[in-house]
Predict the structure.
Amino acid sequence: MKKMQILSGLKFKEKADANYQGYRDFYLKSDINQSRIAMLLLVMPLLGFVFNDYLFFGFSSSFFVLATIRSFIVFIIGFAFFYIGKVRTYHLYDRIIFFAIFSLIAGGAMINASRPENYLFHSIFAIVSVFVLYLVVPLKLTLQIPIASLMTMGEALIILISSNNTGISVLFTLFFSMFVANVIAALSSWQLHSYRRRVFEEFTERRKLQDSLQDQANHLAELVEERNKELVESQARFLKAERLAAIGEMAGMIGHDLRNPLTGIKNACYYLRKKQGNFVGDKGLEMLGIIDRSVLYADKIVNDLLDYSREMRLTQEDCSPKAIINYIILSLKVPKTVKILEHVEDHVSLHIDEAKMQRVFTNLITNAFDAMPNGGTLEIDSSQKGKDFLITFRDTGTGMTSDTLEKIFTPLFTTKAQGMGFGLPICKRIVEAHGGTISVTSAIGNGTTFTIALPVQ
C-alpha cells in the first residue's frame, strides 16, 4: 500500500513537472522580450546617474571607481540582453536573468554605499527596485524572493551604517515599509504567475479540444471515405453477380439447346462409319474422325456451360489428395519435355467430393502443361497452415501479366485459342463450395503458382 502511494506521488510529481515545463516554455519567448525591455529600463538610470556621481565627487578617484562599476554592470546586462535571444530552455533563461539581476544588485549596493547620508533615497530605491524585480522582470518566483530579500537587506544595512543620528521610529518606519513592499510585491508576483498559468492551462485545454475535434473530423472523413469505398465495391460486386447470373442463365439455355444437335451429329457419324465406311474411303473416315473430335470438344463446352449454371452439389467422402493427384498424372498424357515433381503428403485425408476435386486438379495440371510449350517443371507440394491443408501447383512456364491475373477467374475470359473461359471459374466454385480458397501468383517469365486451401475436418 505504501509503495503504491509512493508511486502515485511520483506520477503526480512527474505530471506537475511536465505541466510546469510546458507553462514556462509557453511564455519563454514573451518573457525574453519583456526581460530585454526591463534591461533597457535598468541601463538608462545606470548611465544617467553618472552625471550625479560627478556632482557628488567630481573627477576624483571615487568617480572613476563608480564609473567602472557602472560600466561592468552595463556590460553584464548587455551580454545578457544579446545572449538571451539564443536561449531555447527556461532553465538557461532563469540562470542568465538571475546572474544579471544579482550583478545589478551587488553593483548597485556598492554605488549606494558610496553616497552621502540619505536614508530616504535608499529606502525609496529599495521599494521601487523590489516592485520592479517582482512585477517587471519575468523570473521564477522562487528566484525572485531571495534576490529581492538580498537587495532589501543590503539597502537596510546601508541605512543602518549611515544613520548615526536617525531616530528609532524613523528607522522602524523605513524598514517596515520595505518589508511590506516585499510582501505586497511577492503576493502580486504570485498572482501574476497564477494568472499566467491559468491562461496557459486554458490555452492548453482549448488546444486539446481543438486537436480532439480535428481528430474526430479526420476520423469521420475516413469513415465516410471507407463507407463510400464499400458502397462502390458493393455496387461493383452486385453488378458482377448480376452479370454472372445472366451468364449462367444464358449458359444453361445454350447448353440444353446445343446438346440435342450434338447428339444427332454424333449418331450420324457413328451410322456413316458403320454402314458406309467401306464407301467413303480413308479420306472420308479421317473427316468423320475430325467430326467426332469436334463433337467431343463441343460437348465439353456444353458440359462446362451446364456445370457453371447449375447449383453446386457435393457428394463428400474422405479421400486422399495424393491418391487423386497420382491417378490424374497416370491418366493424363504428360508431354515428354515436362517434368513433374510430386511431393504431396500421403497421410492426410480430406472430406471432399472426389470427382469434382479431381476435375479441379486436372484443370490446373493441364493448364500448367499448356503454359510450358517448350518444356519445364511442374512441382506439386502440400503443407499445413492452421486448420487448412494447402496444395500448391507451381510451374516454370511463361507466366501471366497483372491484367490477366485480375481476370483469370472471370467467366468467358480465356487466353487460349480454343476454350470458353469456364475452366478456372468452375474450379473456383468447386473449391469455395468445399469451404476453401484458391489463389494465384504469377509474373512474366517466372512461371505461375496456384494454391488451393481446403479445410481439414
Observations:
- The domain at 317-455 is CATH 3.30.565.10 (Heat Shock Protein 90).
- The chain has three domains: 2-166, 242-309, 317-455.
- The first helix runs from residue 2 to 48.
